[in-house]
Design a protein that fits this description.
mainly alpha; single chain; 74% helix
Protein backbone atom coordinates (compact mmCIF):
# COMPACT_ATOMS: atom_id res chain seq x y z
CA UNK A 1 0.00 0.00 0.00
CA UNK A 2 2.87 2.38 0.79
CA UNK A 3 4.22 1.96 -2.76
CA UNK A 4 0.79 2.65 -4.27
CA UNK A 5 0.39 5.84 -2.24
CA UNK A 6 3.93 6.93 -3.12
CA UNK A 7 3.36 6.27 -6.83
CA UNK A 8 0.06 8.18 -6.92
CA UNK A 9 1.46 11.07 -4.89
CA UNK A 10 4.45 11.31 -7.24
CA UNK A 11 2.20 11.52 -10.31
CA UNK A 12 -0.02 14.15 -8.71
CA UNK A 13 2.84 16.29 -7.40
CA UNK A 14 4.54 16.28 -10.81
CA UNK A 15 1.36 17.12 -12.71
CA UNK A 16 -0.22 19.60 -10.30
CA UNK A 17 2.58 20.79 -8.04
CA UNK A 18 3.60 20.13 -4.43
CA UNK A 19 1.57 23.04 -3.06
CA UNK A 20 -1.82 22.46 -4.68
CA UNK A 21 -2.17 18.70 -4.02
CA UNK A 22 -3.72 17.91 -0.64
CA UNK A 23 -3.66 14.71 1.40
CA UNK A 24 -7.41 14.42 0.65
CA UNK A 25 -6.62 14.47 -3.09
CA UNK A 26 -4.02 11.72 -2.69
CA UNK A 27 -6.36 9.61 -0.53
CA UNK A 28 -9.15 9.93 -3.11
CA UNK A 29 -6.89 9.03 -6.05
CA UNK A 30 -5.38 6.10 -4.12
CA UNK A 31 -8.78 4.81 -3.03
CA UNK A 32 -7.82 4.86 0.65
CA UNK A 33 -8.61 6.95 3.71
CA UNK A 34 -6.35 9.74 4.96
CA UNK A 35 -5.85 7.61 8.06
CA UNK A 36 -4.23 4.93 5.88
CA UNK A 37 -1.87 7.49 4.35
CA UNK A 38 -0.92 8.78 7.80
CA UNK A 39 -0.13 5.21 8.86
CA UNK A 40 2.70 5.29 6.29
CA UNK A 41 3.59 9.01 6.20
CA UNK A 42 3.30 11.12 9.36
CA UNK A 43 2.36 14.30 7.47
CA UNK A 44 2.48 15.90 4.01
CA UNK A 45 6.09 17.01 4.47
CA UNK A 46 7.13 13.41 5.12
CA UNK A 47 5.29 12.33 1.98
CA UNK A 48 6.92 15.10 -0.10
CA UNK A 49 10.33 14.00 1.20
CA UNK A 50 9.58 10.35 0.34
CA UNK A 51 8.46 11.36 -3.18
CA UNK A 52 11.60 13.42 -3.84
CA UNK A 53 13.83 10.57 -2.64
CA UNK A 54 11.89 8.07 -4.74
CA UNK A 55 12.20 10.25 -7.86
CA UNK A 56 15.89 10.92 -7.20
CA UNK A 57 16.65 7.19 -6.85
CA UNK A 58 14.56 6.26 -9.91
CA UNK A 59 16.28 8.85 -12.10
CA UNK A 60 19.76 7.97 -10.80
CA UNK A 61 19.15 4.27 -11.54
CA UNK A 62 17.99 5.10 -15.08
CA UNK A 63 20.96 7.38 -15.72
CA UNK A 64 23.33 4.65 -14.48
CA UNK A 65 21.80 2.21 -17.00
CA UNK A 66 22.28 4.76 -19.82
CA UNK A 67 25.86 5.41 -18.66
CA UNK A 68 26.66 1.69 -18.74
CA UNK A 69 25.69 1.51 -22.43
CA UNK A 70 29.00 3.18 -23.36
CA UNK A 71 27.42 5.54 -25.87
CA UNK A 72 29.27 8.54 -27.28
CA UNK A 73 29.29 11.21 -24.53
CA UNK A 74 27.17 13.55 -26.68
CA UNK A 75 24.59 10.83 -27.40
CA UNK A 76 24.62 9.96 -23.69
CA UNK A 77 23.63 13.51 -22.68
CA UNK A 78 20.71 13.52 -25.12
CA UNK A 79 19.57 10.08 -23.88
CA UNK A 80 19.71 11.31 -20.28
CA UNK A 81 17.72 14.41 -21.20
CA UNK A 82 14.99 12.28 -22.80
CA UNK A 83 14.88 9.86 -19.85
CA UNK A 84 14.68 12.62 -17.23
CA UNK A 85 11.88 14.43 -19.07
CA UNK A 86 9.86 11.22 -19.36
CA UNK A 87 10.11 10.67 -15.60
CA UNK A 88 9.38 14.26 -14.64
CA UNK A 89 6.37 14.60 -16.99
CA UNK A 90 8.17 17.45 -18.78
CA UNK A 91 8.03 19.34 -15.43
CA UNK A 92 4.77 21.01 -16.39
CA UNK A 93 4.10 22.21 -12.83
CA UNK A 94 7.70 23.37 -12.18
CA UNK A 95 8.04 21.00 -9.19
CA UNK A 96 11.59 22.10 -8.37
CA UNK A 97 10.46 25.72 -8.03
CA UNK A 98 7.58 24.74 -5.73
CA UNK A 99 9.83 22.47 -3.69
CA UNK A 100 12.31 25.31 -3.21
CA UNK A 101 9.57 27.74 -2.19
CA UNK A 102 7.41 25.58 0.10
CA UNK A 103 9.81 22.87 1.30
CA UNK A 104 13.23 24.60 1.42
CA UNK A 105 14.92 22.04 3.71
CA UNK A 106 13.92 19.12 1.46
CA UNK A 107 15.01 21.14 -1.59
CA UNK A 108 18.42 21.92 -0.06
CA UNK A 109 19.04 18.24 0.76
CA UNK A 110 17.93 17.15 -2.73
CA UNK A 111 20.08 19.76 -4.44
CA UNK A 112 23.16 18.60 -2.52
CA UNK A 113 22.49 14.98 -3.54
CA UNK A 114 21.90 16.03 -7.16
CA UNK A 115 25.16 17.99 -7.22
CA UNK A 116 27.19 15.08 -5.83
CA UNK A 117 25.63 12.63 -8.29
CA UNK A 118 25.93 14.87 -11.34
CA UNK A 119 29.52 15.95 -10.69
CA UNK A 120 30.81 12.40 -11.04
CA UNK A 121 28.69 11.71 -14.11
CA UNK A 122 29.56 14.94 -15.94
CA UNK A 123 33.27 14.67 -15.16
CA UNK A 124 33.32 11.16 -16.61
CA UNK A 125 31.38 12.40 -19.64
CA UNK A 126 33.89 15.22 -20.16
CA UNK A 127 36.93 12.95 -19.77
CA UNK A 128 35.47 10.46 -22.24
CA UNK A 129 34.64 13.25 -24.70
CA UNK A 130 38.23 14.52 -24.57
CA UNK A 131 39.59 11.01 -25.18
CA UNK A 132 37.26 10.59 -28.16
CA UNK A 133 38.30 14.03 -29.47
CA UNK A 134 34.71 15.28 -29.25
CA UNK A 135 35.54 17.86 -26.57
CA UNK A 136 38.51 20.22 -26.52
CA UNK A 137 41.33 18.94 -24.31
CA UNK A 138 41.98 22.46 -22.99
CA UNK A 139 38.70 22.63 -21.01
CA UNK A 140 38.79 22.78 -17.20
CA UNK A 141 36.80 19.66 -16.28
CA UNK A 142 35.93 20.68 -12.71
CA UNK A 143 34.76 24.15 -13.77
CA UNK A 144 32.66 22.83 -16.69
CA UNK A 145 31.04 20.15 -14.48
CA UNK A 146 30.08 22.79 -11.91
CA UNK A 147 28.78 25.33 -14.43
CA UNK A 148 26.80 22.57 -16.18
CA UNK A 149 25.02 21.73 -12.92
CA UNK A 150 24.40 25.40 -12.15
CA UNK A 151 22.88 25.91 -15.61
CA UNK A 152 20.66 22.84 -15.36
CA UNK A 153 19.29 24.13 -12.06
CA UNK A 154 19.00 27.68 -13.44
CA UNK A 155 16.80 26.82 -16.41
CA UNK A 156 14.20 25.47 -13.96
CA UNK A 157 13.71 28.94 -12.46
CA UNK A 158 10.24 29.79 -13.73
CA UNK A 159 10.72 33.52 -13.07
CA UNK A 160 13.64 33.55 -15.51
CA UNK A 161 12.14 31.01 -17.91
CA UNK A 162 8.32 31.03 -17.68
CA UNK A 163 6.83 27.71 -18.76
CA UNK A 164 4.33 29.50 -21.03
CA UNK A 165 7.32 30.77 -23.04
CA UNK A 166 9.50 27.67 -22.97
CA UNK A 167 8.69 24.01 -22.41
CA UNK A 168 11.19 22.18 -20.21
CA UNK A 169 12.11 19.99 -23.20
CA UNK A 170 12.96 23.09 -25.26
CA UNK A 171 14.96 24.63 -22.41
CA UNK A 172 16.98 21.46 -21.87
CA UNK A 173 17.71 21.14 -25.59
CA UNK A 174 18.79 24.78 -25.80
CA UNK A 175 21.00 24.38 -22.75
CA UNK A 176 22.57 21.14 -24.01
CA UNK A 177 23.38 22.82 -27.31
CA UNK A 178 24.80 25.86 -25.50
CA UNK A 179 26.95 23.62 -23.26
CA UNK A 180 28.21 21.37 -26.05
CA UNK A 181 28.99 24.13 -28.56
CA UNK A 182 31.17 25.73 -25.89
CA UNK A 183 33.34 22.65 -25.30
CA UNK A 184 33.23 20.63 -28.52
CA UNK A 185 35.79 20.15 -31.26
CA UNK A 186 34.71 20.23 -34.92
CA UNK A 187 34.11 16.49 -34.69
CA UNK A 188 31.95 17.05 -31.60
CA UNK A 189 29.96 19.83 -33.29
CA UNK A 190 29.15 17.45 -36.15
CA UNK A 191 27.82 14.87 -33.69
CA UNK A 192 25.89 17.55 -31.79
CA UNK A 193 24.20 18.76 -34.97
CA UNK A 194 23.33 15.19 -35.87
CA UNK A 195 21.71 14.73 -32.44
CA UNK A 196 19.81 18.02 -32.75
CA UNK A 197 18.48 16.90 -36.13
CA UNK A 198 17.62 13.38 -34.88
CA UNK A 199 15.93 14.60 -31.70
CA UNK A 200 14.07 17.49 -33.29
Amino acid sequence: MREKILHNATEMFLNLGFKSVTMDDIAKTSGVSKKTIYAHFSNKTALVEAVTNYLFDTICDGIDIIHEQEQSPIVELFMIKKFVLEHLNDEKSSPQYQLQKYYPKIYATLRKKQFEEMQGLIKENLEKGIKQELYRESIDIDFIARIYFHGMVGIKDKDLFPLHNYSMSTLMTYYLEYHLRGISTEKGIEELENQLYTNN
